[in-house]
Amino acid sequence: MSRKSIIAAGFVVLFALIFGAVLVANFSGVKVVHSDSQIEFNTTPPITVNPEVKSLNDAFVEISKSVTPTVVFITVKAKPNTGEKDNQQQDPFHFFFGPDFEMPDPGPQFGSGSGVIISKDGYIVTNNHVVKGAGDHGIKVTLTDKREFDAKIIGTDENTDLAVIKIEANGLPEISMGNSDNVQVGQWVLAIGNPLGLNYTVTAGIVSALGRNIGIGGGGYNIENFIQTDAAINPGNSGGALVDINGQLVGINSAIKTNTGYYQGYGFAIPVNMVKTVVQELIKSGRVVRGYIGVQIQTVDETMAKGLGLDKAKGVLVQSVQKGGGGDEAGLQAGDVILAVDGREVNASNELQVIINSKRPGEVVKLTVFRDGKTIEKDVTLKPRQDDNNETAMNKQKDETSNKGVSSTTIKPLGLTVSDAPSSVKEKYNISGGVVVTSVDKYSDTFLRGIAEGWVITEVDKKKVNNVNDLNDSISGRKEGDAVQIKAIDRNGLERIYFIKIQ
User: Fold this and answer.
1) What pTM was estimated for this model as a whole?
2) CATH number of the domain located at residue range(s) 400-501 in this protein
């Protein structure tokens, strides 16, 4: 090896020694962290929870565990769309059926909802609007253990929006029925269902109000006495359970009030006591047969109370009496105020409906009635519902109540314009006199009460009105704020009683 090569090799060895020394110096005293080292997390609670809060938390957990298996997920394949449009989007009160979509006609429609198991052998309660229109083999039920069953409809009741379906199974978990008469505003409740495809969701809230009448569904004979809650419920919760802190069913979730179609804090459930009555009838005979008084009714407000001579707003006003009905045969009259049924006070129209809903045709109820300043009693034998077949025909008739070309008179204190009833109108309604409403001022009390163009006014304060002059005379001398009782015939030929505030 040459001298130059030896010198070069020496420099390389020297450089390596110096570089190694520098590395050792830089890393001396540094602890090496291995990948398997563990951080010791702090697991000490920052506070000691109040025992009452912990008890409530534990109760929610236990309720969820015990009740959720009794709630089912329902999917429905409905019959092809008939072309009818849903008016739900214009109505702030919504049934919440679930995420759905429409196939091009004539394909089927699909939707989802919830149900509650009420017997070990497969009876399930849900909403009528969930299963309404289901095609053959169109209802499928999924349990929490993921078993799937085809279900058949046992019976439906449009008036209460309830339905009973059944699956072929045994040994199922069944919900415990509570007593909705004991429910109070402010108490905790849990809603369990399948909202927005998020199956078996549990939400908590309180009872916000009782006895709500929101005017939805039922074809004019709807029976509403909803429990209102702020527990979060959304499309898909229909037919699901509303339970108390004992885990007992207090209501079947049915509707929400919303401007968006989704939860805004106002949900409504059918009280379980109504559910129990309807379910028993549906299982027994597939339908519910109710007794009816045969009257059109309205809750009495302050204006009505003034016009009727009541000391305060109470009772339910009889607006009209169906000819041949139980009320007609017992002597009820339009303008009567029903104060109590079998000694039980009623102060809202839905309260009266709920009581009568529990009765059957042939049963007799004792009504306490206020009439002409006196309290009387009437025994009414309830009759089955009789649809007025003439009403549809009358709706289709050409309107003959308009008085185009006839001079009209404005009655400013009532906020309407009227003209004398022509002979054709008198003949149509079998009356000897009256005045036809030709227009109504928007937002007047008359407008807000529901009197409309084409209606015929026949009486004011129980005095006959033959013509416009009679109507003017009947309100002369009245001051602003006074209430007058008006009897009018609507476009269907039905007589109604209204109380209008003088403006």
Assistant:
1) 0.72
2) 2.30.42.10
